[in-house]
Amino acid sequence: MRSGGIFDYDRRKVRIIELTEQTQDPGFWSDPDKAQIVMREIGFEKEIIGKWDELDELRESIQVFQQFLEEGEDVEEEMLGEMNRFRDLLQNLELQNMLSDPDDHRDAIITFNPGAGGTESQDWGVMLFRMYSRWAEKQGYSVSVVEYQDGEVAGLKSASIEVSGNNAYGFLKSESGVHRLVRISPFDSNSRRHTSFCSVFISPVIDDTIDVKLADSDVELQRFHASGAGGQNVNKVETGVRLIWTGTLSDGTQSRVVAECQQERSQLKNREKAMVMLKSKVYELEKNIKERAKEMLEDSKGSNEWGSQIRSYVFHPYNMVKDHRTNHETADVQGVMDGELNEFMKAYLLATVSKGIS
Asked: Which residues are CB-neighbours of 124 under 8 A, at least 6 positions away?
């Protein structure tokens, strides 16, 4: 077991040594962005190694309990406990090992855009906003509100949050698409059932290692008064920045991409952040184009393209959350809305790995 099999234990140990040697270079921190990337990779490799070592210790512990059991000792309960810990840790390690895409380690930007339906869809948008915020907090990730526009009556018109932490994008990439809600509307005096939609778009936060060129002539700059959950200097100074890119993607399709930021007090900083978001979104669209082309070559279904309905959340007449790509479902609607999403993400990663899609 020490060899690590598909986890490449020995290769990871060598990789840690190679990366650590880079940090000994006197000029290592002269480029903070690249240095952070190296430090993050070291942390990731050490985490995988640590979990594998823990598995190895559990395996040895289980073997000891087996010997005690064969000798007539009453240790069955303790052994089952160790076996359950082993199984759970192995599943988590397998899940983490599936994150093989070069961008999986990156932070993520989640953008929420409620569909047609006014208050109903806008309220659904804020419910998803809370769901993903709670999921991120449970994973130990940090969440910052980049842009937030309140709905006219309830909910939100649009919002973007940045989720920072190791493999944030790798896990969240499964969530891009349209999310559908069926419930008895709290805004309907006749208590009728309503169906609402909200688009969720996930993009990796890119850095200087990725070059996305956008012509200045294709980018429109708009300024606005910052407001809402992420606002600063509300209704005093136009610190909020909106960048709109209109251009052609690599497959020839015309696209319009919008990025807003009102996170900072400085308009300049908001503009810089909005540009990173804009490039990140365009980069994600280009990734999707390549993935769709790969899927077509492999004759596989279940495209995760922007705009596809991926999951339904039914609150009435029964309780069910179902992912239409993997058929994974649960009746624990409240748990899902409280951020219990790992099983859905795991099912998606397993499905994409089995199809050879990263």
From this structure: 114, 155, 179, 181, 196, 197, 198
Would you state the structure tokens that stand for residue 137, as one six-digit string?
């907090």
Q: Does domain 5-97 have CATH number 1.10.10.10?
A: no
- Tokens in use for 225? 């008064």
Q: How many CB atoms lie within 10 A of CB 8?
A: 15
Q: Which of 357, 242, 243 is nearest to 305 (CA)?
A: 357
Domain borders along the chain are 5-97, 108-206+301-355, 216-296
CA–CA separation, 314 and 305 (whole Å):
23
Q: Does domain 108-206+301-355 have CATH number 3.30.70.1660?
A: yes
The rounded distance, in Å, linking the Cα atoms of 131 and 138 is 11
Candidates 212, 216, 283, 205; CA nearest to 246 is 216
> Which residue's entry shows tokens 């805004």?
187
The terminus-to-terminus CA distance of the chain in angstroms comes to: 26
Q: What are the Cα distances from residue 2, in Å, to 8, 9, 37, 60, 84? A: 10, 7, 28, 12, 20
Give the whole-angstrom CA distance, residue 166 versus residue 121: 31
- Please give the chain's pLDDT, 358 residues, in tens: 444 445 678 888 999 999 999 999 999 999 887 888 888 789 878 888 998 999 999 999 999 999 999 998 999 999 999 999 898 888 778 777 788 788 998 999 999 999 988 899 999 999 999 999 999 999 889 999 999 999 988 999 999 999 998 889 999 999 999 999 999 988 877 878 899 999 999 999 988 778 899 999 999 999 987 665 544 434 445 788 999 999 999 999 999 999 999 988 889 999 999 999 999 999 999 998 988 776 665 443 333 333 468 999 999 899 999 999 999 999 999 999 999 999 999 899 988 876 655 5
